[in-house]
Amino acid sequence: MSSSSTPRGRHGAARRSLLGLLGPLALAAACAPAPPGPPAAAPRPAASAPPAPPSPAGPPRPAPAPERPGYEGHGAASVSPEILARYAAPPLPDDVSRRIQAMLDVRAPSGGVLGPDGKALYFTWTITGTRQVFRLDGPQRFPLQLTGGEDPTVVEAVTPDGARLVLSRDRKGEENPGLYLQDAKGGPLVAIQHAPGVQTQLQFVSDDGRHVYYRANDVKKDAYVIYRYDIASRQREVVFDREGIWRAVDAAGDGRLLLAKDVGSNMSELFEWAPGAKAAPGADAPTPLFGQGEREDYEAKYGAAPGEVLVLTPRLGEHRRLYSWKAGKLTPISPEIPFDVSAFSIDRARKRILYTVNERGYTRLRALDARSHREIKLPALPAADHVTPVSTTWDGRFTTLLLETSTSPATAHVLDWTTGKLSQWHAPSMPEMAPGAFSATTLESYPARDGAQIPMFVRRPARCERPCPVIVHFHGGPEAQARAGFSARAQLFVDAGFVFVEPNVRGSDGYGKTWLHADDGAKRLDVITDIEDAAKFVKASFGHEGRPPRVGIFGGSYGGYSALIGMTMFAGAYDAGAAVVGMSNLVTFLQNTAPYRRILRISEYGDPEKDRDALLKLSPITYLDRVKAPLLIVQGASDPRVPAGESVQIQQALEARKIPSELILFADEGHGAQKRDNQVLQYGHLVRFFRTHLGGGGGT
């Protein structure tokens, strides 16, 4: 949705909640082609999927488990050409396409990374229709394009001397990133590594600028090796190689590495690896610091004091708080408040700690002196829903800030800590848009059946056919959060005459760890009713002259799963539904998702063997006989997270039951549409579908 509709950062610069569904995909992950192999057979119809349970009157029962999955594998090779051709997106009417094209022109560049002297800003922009890297040689200067072609490319870092950029490049949404170097003035890319079927992800650039540290799962698909690449010699060496999902999160001046091992969703253990140590089997292990065996949430960086580690964790309270860890003791350095600290950073000069607070879906910036931990007063900043620090120069003098409101795209500003001056570097593009064209977002709530108040953000159209039809959009994750802020994609639906509602049901991030973990594993059965309760509240409260509105459900990734649950388990609650890259069967999803994802997802959903009955109870495909309203399903063939077979199997099962449904398959996309032409098709068909089945009275 907006750039703010994201969870707390992890596994790179940021882990995006909708993963490309509702925006131009700011994911820093880039992707390689699928490994070669024989053409795969078409996914089998979901006749082998669990049959539907008895009537809705009784409680859901686990359906008999299939002897084998309804499909096998993930990625483009798992879908036959015949299936791709059958479900290719049909063309749109010209007037619909024009409107979508115009709205996609409303956008802004990313916050970007400053050169070390603060005189150049390198940023990502979708002006070509695909994410590419540009350079600004001063505030409001004309941008120079540095990368091009059809492969989305993201700038990750600038070397300390300002001479080179570190870039990540994507191919077809497969999420197998390649890592590259480029001269900061432009020119050809030099591959550090871009291997088929392998994720190559930047960890950091060394302080002396000689080395690029990265991780890759090129030895085992479910484990990551830490490598060090020598820029001058173009050679790499193994730094750390052990079983597990490892990250190198920071480096000390003497070469020590701070390592994180992810053991589940939002669960990490922290270690330190000394210079010269070897991680070969049988050698000394890295030194455990904290988190071992706890299955708790930790993010960490080295602090300014010797032996200090800065830690963001909810370990000692309900909300995430920032601590200083020394000699085994956590000492809080951020105030105790009823909100999560959502992220933090410390500059390489170890001068300042910047952290953001998530205040009910709004982002507030705060700063601390890195040595004394005293609060630093920030200069006056423009009013914004979100103030987010993006990057700080190596010497700590300049910080790029991204400022965003609900009525205007984000703008990048540079703060000079020496002078206190804030300068705007780039402006958003809003061609042919009148002032006040975008609806403001309001924070509201609805009651769940057990009395819990569920937060939701609401955007209302200036005009509609009353009662205004409503679209309830569920975010991805599930450990994500719908937030205030700008969204041209949401505005498409508002302009079409829909009220656009974005709930943060239990399991969402940003409201404390009890709320976040309320849906873990089988506990999801106790709170998944939040999806149905949203429809009940909207129908009871958003009507006109005693007439309830027609209500649709929509989402991507976990939000796509939520949409399928709303249309199946809670059939009748919603009048139409659209699911983008959503899971239809949690058992087959866990069996076929990428190996590195499976480890993390099992902690969130449950084990496909041990928790099979609960997973089947929670699977939309179990409740197909309940479906009463039309469904639109959208999927990328190359998706490594939610395999295309999840969408194909439920579509074919719906067809077999003669239930009105549509499937759109993008052959050249992964976990959401990245390419502009595909985004036009995706959003055009979404608007067309909901206008057909819910009505509406806007201009789209």
Automatic annotation (TrEMBL):
Peptidase S9 prolyl oligopeptidase catalytic domain sequence ranges: 486-696
Residue ranges, compositional bias (Pro residues): 33-67
Ranges in coiled-coil conformation: none
Disordered: annotated span: 30-77
Keywords, alphabetical: Hydrolase, Signal
Keyword Iron belongs to the record: no
Signal sequence, renumbered to the chain: 1-28
InterPro entries: 6-blade_b-propeller_TolB-like, AB_hydrolase_fold, Peptidase_S9_cat, Peptidase_S9A, TAT_signal
Protein name: Prolyl oligopeptidase family serine peptidase
UniProt source species: Sorangium atrum
Lineage of producing organism: Bacteria, Pseudomonadati, Myxococcota, Polyangia, Polyangiales
